[in-house]
Design goal:
The protein contains five helices and ten strands, in the order βααβαββαββαββββ. The protein is α+β, with helices and mostly antiparallel strands. A four-stranded antiparallel beta sheet has the order 5-6-4-9, covered by helices on one side. A two-stranded antiparallel sheet has the order 1-2. It holds the Pfam family RRM_1. Its main location: nucleus.
Length: 169
Amino acid sequence: MDGPAMADVLDINDAVDIDVEDEGDQSVLRLKDKVVKRKGRGFGSGERREHENIRGYESIDAGDHGDEPGPQMSVEGWILFVTSVHEEATEEDLCKKFSDYGAIKNISINLDRRTGFLKGYALIEYGNYKEAAAAREALNGSSLLGQTIGVDWCFVKGPKKTKKRSKRH
């Protein structure tokens, strides 16, 4: 492939007014000295990158669950992943079952485009860890419309990875 890729950009550092007929090769060399090749996105003319300008952004207070393995909070709250949900279950059915354990912030169910039925899973969001943990504990393995559902955390941080050294023989 000849020439720069689509993400490559040639940026001229200073405004250069060159009359090619008057100066010939010298003007081309001066122009080449002023050109800087940049790759990727997010660069401006002499400006700092956007991510360097952002300070004090909103972060999640991890509380007691920071670096430990286990459930992790999303940006909005604590989300439970409900599996094996009956295809004819409705948002109202899920709300009735899960609202006994606390205020539900959001219920997300996905429908199959072709059939119009539930795909078999749902996401239920609580604003509080204790409510979500109580619902998970009580409803995992329970029945909804005659079908046993599974309830677990949507976001889980696994154990810390350790490097294993293999011995060569």
